[in-house]
Write a structure and sequence with these properties.
Layout (H helix, E strand, L loop, with lengths): L3 E4 L4 E4 L31 H11 L3 H21 L3 H10 L12 H12 L4 H9 L12 H21 L10 H8 L10 H11 L3 H13 L16
Antiparallel strand pairs: 1-2
Helix pairs in contact: 1-3, 2-3, 2-6, 2-9, 3-5, 4-5, 5-6, 6-8, 6-9, 7-9
C-alpha cells in the first residue's frame, strides 16, 4: 500500500490514494476532510492480557490474590451501578500490579501508570488507579469508579485477613464480625480503618451493607483467593 505519513502504532493514515481499498473507509479522503473519530482510540484489552501484565510484574501470590479480590468487588459494583464491568474489573485487577517492584510512594502507582500508558490502556483506567493513592493531590477521586476502587481496596484486604483466621474462611462471615475485628488495633494493623470507613462514605453506601457486598463478591471467587472451604461453622 502506498501511503504517506502513516503512524502504525495508532493506525492513523494521514494521506492515502483515494482508490486504495486496503485503507479503511473512515480514513479515506472525504474531499479535504478525514474522519478523526478513530484517531487515538484505545485498543481493547482482554482479561488474559491484564493477567499476563499483572504476573509479569508481580510474583507474590498473596498480592495477586488481593488484586483478584478487588477485581471481584469492582465487577460486582459495576453490575450494581449499571457500569461497564470489564473496565471496572480491569481497574481492580491492575491497581497494585506495580507495587511489588516499586512499593514506595509516589513510585507506586506512578510507575505502573507509565507502563499502562505505554501499552495503550485507557486514560480512565490509569486515572482511577492513580486516584487510589491519597498522596497524589493532583488525582482526586472524581468518578464513581474512582471511589469504588478506594472503597474496595482496603476492605478486601481486611476481609481476607479476617477469613484467614476463621476455620470456615469466607463462609458465614458477617459485617458484625468484621467490624468487631476492626476494633482490635493489633489485628491486621497495616490496614487503615479510617480508609475503610471513609471509602464507604465517599461511595455513598452504608458501611455494613458495603462489607456484606464485598464479602459476597469475594465468596464468588473464593477458590481463586485461596479462601474456599467445605466447613459450615457459624460465627
Amino acid at each position: 500500500m502506498s501511503e504517506q505519513g502513516r503512524r502504525i502504532d495508532r493506525k492513523i493514515v494521514l494521506s492515502a490514494p483515494a482508490g486504495d481499498d486496503t485503507v479503511p473507509s473512515a480514513l479515506r479522503p472525504q474531499g479535504n476532510d478525514f474522519d478523526f473519530s478513530v484517531i487515538n482510540r484505545p485498543r481493547e484489552m482482554s482479561r488474559d492480557e491484564d493477567l499476563a501484565l499483572l504476573r509479569e510484574y508481580t510474583h507474590s501470590e498473596s498480592l495477586i490474590r488481593h488484586m483478584l479480590a478487588v477485581e471481584a468487588a469492582m465487577r460486582a459494583y459495576a453490575r450494581r451501578f449499571g457500569e461497564d464491568e470489564e473496565t471496572w474489573g480491569r481497574v481492580g485487577l491492575l491497581h497494585d500490579f506495580d507495587y511489588e517492584r516499586w512499593p514506595d510512594p509516589p513510585d507506586h502507582p506512578l510507575k505502573g501508570a507509565e507502563i499502562l500508558e505505554s501499552r495503550g490502556y485507557p486514560a480512565e483506567v490509569i486515572y482511577a488507579i492513580k486516584s487510589h493513592a491519597d498522596y497524589l493531590p493532583d488525582c482526586p477521586r472524581v468518578s464513581l469508579m474512582d471511589k469504588a476502587l478506594y472503597a474496595c481496596d482496603e476492605l478486601a484486604g481486611f476481609i481476607t485477613a479476617c477469613a484467614l483466621v476463621r476455620p470456615n474462611r469466607l463462609e458465614g462471615m458477617t459485617p458484625k464480625s468484621v467490624r468487631k475485628k476492626m476494633k482490635t488495633p493489633t489485628f491486621a494493623a497495616a490496614v487503615n480503618r479510617d480508609d475503610i470507613v471513609r471509602g464507604a462514605e465517599d461511595l455513598g453506601v452504608d458501611l455494613n451493607e458495603h462489607i456484606a457486598f464485598v464479602i459476597a463478591a469475594m465468596q464468588n471467587v473464593a477458590a481463586e483467593l485461596g479462601l474456599a472451604t467445605d466447613l459450615t461453622e457459624s460465627e
